[in-house]
Amino acid sequence: MNAPIVRVRDLVKEFQVTRGRGGPPAVLRAVNHIEFDINAGTTLGLVGESGSGKSTTGRLLVGLIPATSGEIELFGETITGKDGRRALAKVRSKMQFVFQDPHGSLNPRMRVGDCIAEPIDIAGGWSRGDRTDRVSELLETVGLPRAVAERFPHEFSGGQRQRIGIARALALRPEFVVCDEPVSALDVSMQAQIINLLLDLQEKLGLSYLFIAHDLAVVRSIATEVAVMYAGALVEHAPKTVLYATPKHPYTQALLEAVPRPDPDRVRSAAIGGEVPSVLNPPPGCSFAPRCPKVMDICRIERPAPRASGEGHAVACHLY
Amino acid sequence: MAAADNTTPLLAVDDLTVRFRTDEGWMTAVDRVSLAVGEGEALGIVGESGSGKSVTALSILRLHAAATTRMPTGRIMYGGRDMLGLSTREMRTIRGGEIAMIFQDPMSSLNPVLTIADQIGESLRLHQGLDQATARRRAVELLELVRIPDAARRVDEYPHRLSGGMRQRVMIAIAIACRPKLLIADEPTTALDVTIQAQILDLLRDLQTELGMSVILITHDMGVIAEFARRVMVMYAGRVVETSPVSALFRRPVHPYTDGLLAAIPKLDVDVRRLPAIPGSIPDPTAVIPGCRYSPRCPIVEETCRREAPELLAAGPEREARCPPRVAALAVERVA
């Protein structure tokens, strides 16, 4: 296996929020001491429900927002801390971002060709001819005809727009792409096309992905490893086949059980109660404790640290 | 209202066609859709965007803007009357009274400046003539019925104080306030997290049994259909392409679109190297496609499919499919 191109250690992100007019500021800890690696050419699937901190993690990773503490190393450069900005500038062109909403992320007044070439224009140093050739090449890569370059984003369906978003992300030949819910706004028949496209691109271009999603089935179809987030913390992390075969954390188990399967004979067990806690007032101890069917006394007092349990499987739970 | 006997469905939609005005002229959003819901039955309508599933549901309650919609044609029989012929006033007594509806986004369906008590009470005062105090008491009971913890306190709160899951519970409480005979649920769990979705589906199923309601559940999610519905209707580009008991549909889909849709769903329980995607895209609603609307994407397309619009054909017990080649193949198989 290759060396990791992404190393995250003890990463924390806090936001200051004011509650009510003139109220005292409160601290919202969106990302709570998380760690993971992503190896070259692989995909880490980051799974969680709303408010789990998965999107914040994605934004931290490409330097869109600064970390509160902890360390992010990309391609051997540490982009957090004192010299972070300079390090980030060095590696910025190697990474890109694909957004969930292909409607909101493309400028409606720009032709598709210009949308795709925007990163090229910002980077500079390309001749007109090279730029046009690159746009045609990118369109072909994502399975769209060349002529699309002259049209406007609104003329396309969600799936085609997501192809345009991916073409733009690939413009500067990145090695690492953060995909934040890239298929959750799409219809099922489009979803499969985009997942297959991302898999093809990974094979052809050797890309590494951080694939953020709430849909465990979608993640299974693309990830190499899977990390499960809950209320800002990583509760479980394992190679894909291990995680889906032997989920250990009670939250992962509940999450897998809750997914409706296209199988009318299956009888799902009753849903777990409660809701995702606010990260504004996190309960002491394990944040899943209030909903956990296997909760013990210690869970409400002490926050469990992630522990390795063989086969690259790590679980943050007092049961193990 | 007199209880219908077993042969008369609670609601029978016959040949419903709905047309919208667009910049490019009139567009047919729902094309000759027929469906029937029996008492206590759970019917699922599944389809992707532009399939016409939501428009069908909205049309049952005549909830379309008159300016951009031509009056739907066909018949919507409920309680022995055609709802398309009812006056606005008569429709108002049915809506929220005998037939209730919940929507995908509970935030935009709730009024942000009214308390939960006011909003549940509105329907009780309107349909059942309850006074303020009785309505409030009944609102608390309803919140308990939809399993909102601490209902007596929550009833006086405003919607923004509630999570998405709790808001959807409030919407359900409003919908069942007048003991409707039919609940139309349009993507009720799509905006919710998966653990909350499971809670809401559990709740809907329990309420259906407790109250003996019929439910029409509209969704894009085949998993939700498999879990909740007994019968299912698959829609594509404004038309019904297949109707079937749920178990038979999943065991063996007849229409190639149903086939493709089931195959394209990412699998949770097995590893699949590449998902068999359906090629092409969902057609633009204003596009004119001669013949079968699925023909441009269909893997078993034949010459006639591109010319002649197929009818729904019988394809087994309680099953129909709009695909002559497949239905013919099935018939041959049955003889052999």
Task: Quickly give the structural class of chain B.
Answer: alpha/beta
Q: Overall pLDDT of chain A, averaged?
A: 92
**What is the helix/strand order of chain B?**
EEEHEEHEHHHHHEHEHEEHHEEH
Number of distinct helices of chain A: 9
> Oligomeric status of the shown chains?
heterodimer
Classify the helix fraction of chain A into a percent range: 25-40%
Radius of gyration of chain B: 21 Å
Low-confidence stretches of chain B: 1-5
Indicate the structural class of chain A.
alpha/beta
Q: CATH architecture of chain A, please?
A: 3-Layer(aba) Sandwich
Largest sheet of chain A: 8 strands, mixed
Characteristic terms for this protein:
heterodimer; A: about 325 residues; alpha/beta; Rossmann fold; eight-stranded mixed β-sheet; four-stranded antiparallel β-sheet; 9 helices; B: about 325 residues; 12 helices; 12 strands; about 35% helix; about 20% strand; disordered N terminus
Detailed description of the structure:
The complex is a heterodimer of chains A (320) and B (336). Helices cover 29% and strands 23% of the residues of chain A. With 320 residues, chain A is of the alpha/beta class. An eight-stranded mixed sheet of chain A has the order 6-7-8-3-9-10-12-11, sandwiched between helices. In chain A, strands 2-1-4-5 form a four-stranded antiparallel sheet, covered by helices on one side. In chain A, a hairpin with a 2-residue loop joins strand 9 (225-230) and strand 10 (233-239). The longest helix of chain A is centred in the middle third of the chain and has 18 residues, at 188-205. The two termini of chain A are 28 Å apart. The model of chain A has no long low-confidence stretch (mean pLDDT 92). Chain B has helices at 53-60, 88-94, 106-109, 116-128, 132-145, 151-154, 164-176, 194-211, 222-228, 246-251, 256-264, 324-335, and strands at residues 11-22, 25-37, 42-46, 69-78, 81-82, 99-102, 182-186, 214-219, 231-236, 239-245, 313-314, 320-321. At the A-B interface, helix 5, helix 6, helix 7, helix 8 and helix 9 of A face helix 7, helix 8, helix 9, helix 10 and helix 11 of B.
